[in-house]
Amino acid sequence: LNADDFFPSMLPTGLTFDDVSLATRYSEVLPRQASLNLTLSKRISLHLPIVSSDMDTVTESNMAIAMALQGGLGIVHYNMSEKQQVREVARVKNYVNGLIQDPFVAHPEQTIGDVLELVERKNVKFRTFPVVDQDEKLVGLLPGRVVKERYRSHRVEEAMHVRSQVHTITESEIGENPVETADQFFSDHLGIHKLLVVDQEDRLKGLFTLSDIERISEEARSNLRPARDDRFRLLCGAAISAVRKADGSLDRDRIIGHVSNLVGEGLDALAVSTAHGFSAGVGESVRLLRSEFPDLTIIAGNVTSGDGVEYLADAGADIIKVGQGPGSICTTRQIAGVGIPQLTALYACSKAAKAKGVRILADGGISKSGDVVKALTLADAVMCGGLLAGCKEAPGTILEIKGKLYKQYRGMGSEAAMKAGSAARYGHAVKDLNRKVASEGIEALKEISGSVEEVISGLAGGLRSGMGYLGAKDLDALKENALYVRVSPAGQREASPHDVIVVKAETSEEG
Ligand code: XMP
């Protein structure tokens, strides 16, 4: 027998995070000096290279807000109605943006009862309202202390502060830094909680509130650098599925209509998320979106080859998701027998991405900060599901089992998630789910892991340490300085605590 009688022996090797370790390099960089800033597209700059997965047990508005506050990005999933998804994106975009541009208003002829109904209907948390006439001209400010049941029958104009008593600035006085301007105003006017913005004709254009400005200033003091757009709003992404008509063709009008609504709320990045991005359907969707929304950042995937990256880049994607089957709840490799271990996939994709001038996201399989460091030697940012699913900001209720607290975490290719809407992501129609359709994900539980801030600070801390060991002052240098060694099974055992009885489970970077 010679070697060719056996199965070809020189197959390429697929490696993943635990198969390699990074070599230490000469360093003049202390971990805390390492910069985690990155630019993902013309309009998306982050201060943390971490994106939360568009999964129905990971990212809704609370997660997207928490991720953007940490400097990263959240992608709101699409296993909900289109209307609900638009609302979720609006919640993120309207979260403490310094200047509130479409404030709720009252009218002089209304009663306090009408205002109370607005409070109830819109579930607003505050009680002070600018009062405007039919031409949107500012006529007064209704103070919160009169928006009470006992004054229900009074008219707004009887109870409001009149125009001459209301503090305002004009749009042109806001200047380059709205927060600084408002902060200065509130410092100079003790006891005033609202500053209204008007145009030259005295029409209401927005308002600042003291509590928002205090929160933003607090963030600045605590070194938090939220990811914001050029209007100072938090960044937010959302995923869509390729909606098809009964005859199988893309429902172009519906997709364009929904994406227009998302963009109308200020959406920053749209993800066409599927299990198989190197496919005609995904290419068609990306081309449609690129031609209709030339300025929108488009994320598409998932792929695991250079060809796949080129295909989606040519279709118009700015950012390409890499990963098939590395995820903690994924069974694609077991069910379909397909997929490439994640580090090898990233290696292949990173070369093509560089040549095409697009960015890549390492999606799935990140289970510790060391994996983030290794992934970022090839990718521009990582996408995490499982690591964030146990956070209080993830959707879903907390379950108690034998005294321990858990949250549900499920694959978007699990039967339950596909029934809730994600079937198209795996190339199935919801109506087919009762027939034999293989699920490609599992339903699982994650132990509660605290807040996003806590989880992210652990990941960012580990990333900075890795950058310190590699002498990398920023994420570009991390890529340039990376040298890999292949780890043997004995080397892998050596990398975890061994020959000791562990009394405290956290891993320390020393030793
Ligand atoms: P982690 O490891 O962070 O992975 O939990 C999250 C990523 O896994 C992908 N994903 C799936 N892949 N079947 C799969 O094969 C699934 O059911 C599934 N659900 C999510 C997705 O890319 C996510 O970001």
Description:
This protein has helices at residues 61-69, 82-93, 112-122, 156-159, 171-174, 178-188, 210-221, 252-264, 280-292, 306-315, 332-336, 342-356, 369-376, 386-389, 415-419, 452-469, 475-481, 489-495, and strands spanning 20-22, 38-41, 44-46, 50-52, 73-76, 129-132, 138-142, 161-162, 168-170, 194-198, 204-209, 237-240, 269-273, 297-303, 319-322, 359-363, 381-384, 398-401, 404-410, 443-447, 484-486. The strands form six sheets. It has an eight-stranded parallel beta barrel, surrounded by seven helices. A three-stranded antiparallel beta sheet has the order 6-7-8. Strands 9-10-11 form a three-stranded mixed beta sheet. Helices cover 33% and strands 18% of the residues. The radius of gyration is 26 Å and the shape is globular. A hairpin with a 2-residue loop joins strand 18 and strand 19. With 511 residues, the protein is of the alpha/beta class. It is built from 18 helices and 21 strands. The structure holds xanthosine-5'-monophosphate. Xanthosine-5'-monophosphate (XMP) binds at residues 53, 55, 302, 323, 325, 327-330, 332, 363-366, 383-387, 411-414, 440-441. Keywords: CBS domain, Metal-binding, NAD, Oxidoreductase, Potassium. NAD(+) binds at residues 323-325. Belongs to the IMPDH/GMPR family.
